[in-house]
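Mods, move this if it's the wrong board.
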Amino acid sequence: MGDVTAILLAIEGGDRMATEKLLPAVYDELRKLAALRMAQERPGQTLDATALVHEAYLRLVKVPQAGQWDGRGHFFAAAAEAMRRILVENARRKKRLKHGGDRQRVADDDVAQKDVNEDQVLALDEALTRLAAEDRLAAQIVEMHHFCGASHEIVAESLGLTVYRVRQKWTFAKAWLRNDLERIQA
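Not the wrong board. Structure tokens:
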């Protein structure tokens, strides 16, 4: 049993000291995942990888269900969902009128093509909600891969699946999301 799973079991058992051990045990991995995700965001974000990890961690340990994770995979899936929610909330905040949401953004030639704007984040969030209603595992894999930046190998390890199964679900989810987003835009 890994250190993270042991700590999570101790938290579930009511060990208050175990909560203090959780952040140091998961911080480096969460920080890497958040850094990968934030590298895909538009330059000049007010949210950085460290802030994303800290906000996600606070949300994970402050909810009433904190400590009820079924091991390492469940915890990292919950972290991916928390990061998704934070990024979506951030995109919604930026779209509000008082934050300049009515202004048209002008593309800069120096900005990489992989930059994601707020409209795309919100559209993906809505599409993921629809996908989760049809295939929760596929939606969870997209959350971990897209919002956390986790590789197929990390997703497989976290969810207790084979890399092959994760790739199958990832391929299905990409096609499903592409079809759903094209249908909505039409």
